[in-house]
Structure formats: C-alpha cells, structure tokens
Design a protein that fits this description.
Layout (H helix, E strand, L loop, with lengths): L12 H29 L17 H14 L1 H11 L8 H12 L6 H12 L9 E2 L5 E2 L3 E7 L5 E7 L7 H15 L8 H15 L2 H17 L7 E2 L12 E5 L6 H4 L4 H22 L1 E3 L7 E4 L4 E4 L5 E3 L2 H16 L2 H11 L8 H14 L1 H4 L4 E2 L4 H17 L6 H20 L2 E2 L1 H11 L16
Parallel strand pairs: 5-9
Antiparallel strand pairs: 1-3, 2-3, 3-4, 4-6, 7-10, 8-9, 11-12
Helix pairs in contact: 1-2, 1-6, 2-3, 2-4, 3-4, 3-6, 6-7, 10-16, 10-17, 11-12, 11-13, 13-15
C-alpha cells in the first residue's frame, strides 16, 4: 500500500484563501526566477513554440500547483483531477504531467484532525460503535479519505470521512483556482471553462453530501439486483446506515483489484471485465437513465476468485432527462451507421451545435462522432488494443472543434462524456476485446423512448 503523506487540511475560509494567495505568489516568484535564470543562461526568447501565455507553466510551477492542490484538497483538487483527463492537445505538457500526480490522490489528515472530524459526526463515544478502526487510510481522494473498520458482528467496512471545510468552500475554491488558471491563460477559449465551472460547482455540492451518496448507492444496488443475469457479475456494497451522516459514509468493505492490476491478468479476464464495464455504462445511460459519472478507475474493484466486479463511490451519480437520453441514443446509433444528417440533427437538438457552425466545424464534429462510434459499428468483438490510432484522430479533431465551436456543450454532456471517456480508456488499458455492437443494440432495443416514436428495433449483431 502506497504510503500517504500527512498534512493538515486548511478548513477555514481564511485559511483556504491564504493557501491560494500563497500559491499565486509562488507561481509569480517561480516565473520571475525562471526568467532570470534563462537570461543568464542566454536562453532564446519566446517563440511560437513557447508563447508568452505559457510563461507561468514551467515544469517547476506546474509541480507547485500540483503540490498545492494535494494539500488544499476539496473542490480545488477535484477540479484539477477533472482537468487531468483532458486531451493532451488541450493542456500544456508540464501541466498535464503535474496533474497526473494530482489524479493519483491527495494528502491525508493527521490523526488529531481526523479524530476531531469523526467525533463531530458520530459523537465522542464513536469507538464503542466499532470493534476495530484502522487509523492508517486505505485511500485519500479530493473530498475525503477512506479507513477500514470492523463491526461488532465481524463485518469489515469502509468508512469515508470528509475533509473539514471542503463543503462550504466549493464556490471560493473553484473561483480561486479558475482565477489562477485564467491569469496564466493556458486553456483554449473553446473549452468554455466558465460553463464547466458552473456545472462543477453543482456536482461538487452533491458529492459533498454523503447522505445523497448513500441514497444513490442504495438505488444502484436495487437497479443491479433487479437486472436478471447482470447482478451475478456485478455488486454494489451495502450502506451501513447507522454509521452514516452527511459528512461520513460507511459501507461494506469489498475485495478486488483496480483496473491497472486487472490489466496484468489473462486475456480472458481482461475481456470479461472490459465487457462488464461497457455493458454497465450502456445500461446506466440507456436503460436506467441513472449513471455514476466519475471516470476514476479506482471506483471499480474486480474480485478474481468470484469473478465479480464491485462498484464503489456514488457521489457523482445523477439522473438524465428522458428527452436527452432519447436523442443521445439516436445520435450514437447515427455515429455507428455514419449517418451525417442524423448526427447533425440530434447534435443540434441537444445543444452541441447552434445551427450556425462553419463547414469545418460540422465536418470535424461528424467525423469525431464516427470515430468514437467505431466500436459500435464493428461486427463481432472490437479489439481496444488497436484503438490508439482512433484516439489520436479524435484528439486532432477535438483541437479543430475547440477552435471553431460556437457554444458550450449541454450541461448533461460534462459528466456523461467524462464517464464515457473513462469507460473507453479502461477498455484500452485492459486491451479488452468487447462485443460493443451487440451490447449497444441490446440496450437500444430495451430503451423505452419518450414522446417521439422510435425507429424500428434493430437486429443484434451476430
């Protein structure tokens, strides 16, 4: 288990504001220091390859940013983790590398601060409610850290304990981080950062409410249990309601390996897990209209002895409107069938396009859809080990769309596309061979459309 670094979480509004102020000052100092060093080394002046708007994003400054986010935790770290999954063409290389470290996890609370939080949530006699509690964290994330506990009946549980002050600092954290990013001027206009931040604030407020997460987890548990055939291979841990509060969540502790460990297993296992991941994603959106949208691979634990995929962390779960899902399902089908007219029509109806885009933008948008839809257009099993060229093609088309898009994506797209990208990336990591077309049409034919009459059901691929 990776040794986690202990650092106290700044919990007061003033303390967090000071943290951002210190970060800003250190970035400016680092920039000046780097510029002076370049001058005395006789380094060449800025060119088109090193524009002035990237002068703040030196490798050292990017590391300072990552270190500060890991120390601050909360919404600032969560937003940094969201940025870390952006395409390599969007972020400067130094920032991308630093944010990779951010995605790996946060620092943890010192024991004294941890105990203070637990007492505030469960009362001063909290130890009597457990047979055992391990003060060494199992994991640390942006909003809380997880500890192992044992109930008096012998069951082992995972206790997720929220960092103090993060819930009430969402607005200021996001605003302060965006202010720093805007000052450095490193993100393209087409990313519509302000719109993304507005959505992020709402999502983060829900993620900080562990009572909401407990309800979502129970809803997922019921959906999986009711899905005949699927529930044999997938499990959602039970919530231990008597040890839950809005800032502390206790669930069954489940065994299993993360995706990066599964990637070292046999082809048969990798295929099975990749198939389960994609099948789950399609069911969530097109059959249940209720999706856990966090793309973090750590939310999936595969237990090799039983062959069961355990699902954890439901703070980012959300429902999707019927009309949006109807249109999105038809758009995915159109992408798989390379029906340009239908792709543009559905994209405009959902708000991805305004109707006033240039031919360059429309071509890039449609082509990107075809590329992303390739797994669903492929008969038999799609080999994600060969997906690298398509990923690079989407990256190139994404860069074109960032320059030419006229509007921010619809609100639903932010969380949905994070999840879809995460599912694809997991299958690529696993080098899985998945019957994507068959799985898609199974969900397509089960979907109950709303007011608009659905097309004739499609035949499943052989």
């Amino acid at each position: 288990r990776r040794k986690l670094r202990e650092r106290r979480v700044p919990s007061s509004p003033i303390g967090r504001a000071m943290g951002f102020a210190q970060l800003g000052a250190s970035l400016v100092y680092g920039t000046v220091s780097d510029s002076v060093s370049q001058y005395f080394r006789g380094s060449p002046p800025e060119t088109a390859d090193r524009p002035s708007n990237s002068r703040y994003l030196t490798e050292a400054n990017a590391e300072r940013l990552a270190d500060a986010l890991c120390r601050m935790r909360g919404a600032a770290l969560k937003l940094g983790q969201m940025l870390s999954i952006q395409d390599e063409n969007v972020l400067p290389p130094a920032l991308s590398a630093a944010l990779e470290r951010v995605r790996a996890g946060a620092d943890v609370m010192p024991r004294k601060q941890l105990e203070k939080v637990i007492v505030a949530e469960l009362g001063p006699e909290w130890r009597a409610k457990l047979a055992d509690f391990d003060f060494e964290p199992l994991a640390a994330a942006s909003i809380g850290q997880v500890h192992r506990g044992t109930l008096h009946d012998g069951r082992q549980v995972a206790m997720k304990i929220q960092y103090p002050g993060v819930a009430r600092s969402i607005e200021s954290d996001v605003d302060n981080l965006l202010r720093l990013i805007s000052y450095a001027n490193v993100l393209p206009k087409g990313l519509y950062v302000e719109a993304a931040a507005k959505v992020a604030k709402r999502e983060l407020a829900l993620e900080c409410d562990y009572s909401y997460e407990a309800r979502c987890q129970e809803q997922f548990r019921q959906l999986v249990a009711a899905d005949e055939g699927f529930h044999i291979h997938v499990n959602v841990p039970q919530v231990i309601a008597e040890l839950c509060t809005p800032r502390l969540l206790t669930t069954e502790l489940v065994p299993g390996a993360h995706i990066d460990k599964v990637a070292l297993m046999s082809q048969e296992v990798r295929d099975a897990v990749g198939t389960l991941l994609l099948q789950l994603t399609l069911k969530e959106l097109f059959e249940w209209r209720f999706m856990q949208t966090d793309p973090n691979w750590g939310n999936f634990l595969y237990d090799a002895p039983s062959g069961v995929l355990h699902l954890i962390d439901f703070g980012a779960a959300r429902e999707f409107p019927q009309a949006f899902v109807d249109d999105y399902l038809r758009m995915v089908k159109a992408c798989a069938e390379q029906d340009r007219t239908e792709v543009i029509l559905r994209s405009t109806r959902m708000g991805f396009l305004t109707g006033d885009e240039s031919a360059v933008m429309l071509d890039a948008h449609a082509e990107a859809g075809y590329v992303v839809g390739t797994p669903f257009a492929t008969e038999g099993k799609y080999d994600f080990a060969q997906h690298g060229a398509l990923t690079r093609r989407v990256s190139d088309l994404g860069a074109v769309m960032l320059r030419h898009r006229l509007t921010a994506p619809p609100e639903e797209a932010y969380s949905l596309h994070r999840k879809l990208s995460g599912a694809y990336l997991a299958c690529i990591k696993l080098r899985a061979r998945v019957p994507c077309r068959q799985l898609f049409y199974e969900s397509y034919n089960k979907h109950v459309f709303g007011t608009e009459a659905p097309p004739v059901p499609q035949q499943q691929a052989a």
